[in-house]
Amino acid sequence: MTAPRRSDATRAAILTAARERFAADGFERATIRAIAADARIDPSMVMRYYGNKERLFAAAAEFDLRMPDLTGAPADQLGTLLVSHFISRWEGDETLLALLRAAVTQEAAAERMRGLFAAQVGPLAARVAPDPAEAPTRAGMIATQMLGFALCRFVLRLPPVVALDRETAIAWLAPTVQRYLTGTI
Amino acid sequence: MTAPRRSDATRAAILTAARERFAADGFERATIRAIAADARIDPSMVMRYYGNKERLFAAAAEFDLRMPDLTGAPADQLGTLLVSHFISRWEGDETLLALLRAAVTQEAAAERMRGLFAAQVGPLAARVAPDPAEAPTRAGMIATQMLGFALCRFVLRLPPVVALDRETAIAWLAPTVQRYLTGTI
DNA sequence: TACCGTTGCCAACAAGTGTTGGCAAACTGA
DNA sequence: TCAGTTTGCCAACACTTGTTGGCAACGGTA
């Protein structure tokens, strides 16, 4: 139980600005100076509170997929539920976008992305897959589709993918994810 | 018909080194100095022959998907043929990897990626899709899956995706691409 | 009040970046 | 042979980057 500090607001402002910049520009093009300017403080404050740029990114890219509990859900609805959940996670929080943009050139960010899918999608796959031994592969295939969708929609902004409304996107993606999760290979 | 210049070998060496560096490090972390060092020439030569870093990248990321002619192929084999072709294109040439890594932070590279799928996958989808009007969407969905696969396998290096051998990868991906190409939505 | 840790800013550093201009050597054509 | 072009390197430029140290103002505590 730590006492709240007077600088907590500054810390939070830095983190918010960092997430925005990392999400928009990636790791190398997001500069400490720009982040500090957004947070309306001096760049040296960023260093004092977060040590260096990598640790700032690590703090800003803290993320949890919050995978839903699918026990009890209709077996043929798993794909729809999962895809719908993923899209919500992407749209509600730019942290994942920051993580994806950075992961392409930052090994630490890539490692975190790997951990995210292994630790959160893997167990879910293990519970519903016909053979639990296939769970990592199934989680990996789901990653290829969901990260690919996010890449095309939010990063590359491929027009036909941007144009999809939520329901249509789910209609396209759900059968794919359903098959990766429970289908026979 | 231009006469071959004495500097053509240097130009080619620069281009090869540039492709390697851009593919491995992305646009901003690949430095002119490092590229020049790989090509064993002075950094100023890169500027003389390619003007600036952006134009160097544009030259290094010249790429053609070389989509195969699928007229006459069995309708139910389209997914397999396409996926197999994509994987070959990815593995045979690091240009596509350079383009993907750069596209995440460089708008010009993203634009080229958009053009690639619109101009090469789009027409193919128009020929085999039930309704040609859906071709852009279908090409876009194929992009989400194939770029997502490349992202996870070559960039993020998700272990279960890296571990897939070529046949297994095709077995997973082909039905997805087949459905995006010809399935009902 | 006097004290001391906290918060913040300013100025500067060292390193690395893309980029440029000039100059020597090598080559080409007459 | 000799002028003119091409090829290459060196040194430097202007700028940006992450990062550091010092110094003033603030705020709670005794």
Automatic annotation (TrEMBL), chains A, B:
Domain HTH tetR-type: 8-68
Keyword DNA-binding carried by entry: yes
Protein name, UniProt field: TetR family transcriptional regulator
Organism of derivation: Actinoplanes aureus
Superkingdom field: Bacteria
InterPro entries, per database record: Homeodomain-like_sf (IPR009057), HTH-type_TetR-like_transc_reg (IPR050109), HTH_TetR (IPR001647), Tet_transcr_reg_TetR-rel_C_sf (IPR036271), TetR_C_16 (IPR041678)
Keyword list, A-Z: DNA-binding
DNA-binding region coordinates: 31-50
MF term (GO), any: DNA-binding transcription factor activity
Alphabetical list of Gene3D superfamilies matching this protein: Homeodomain-like, Tetracycline Repressor, domain 2
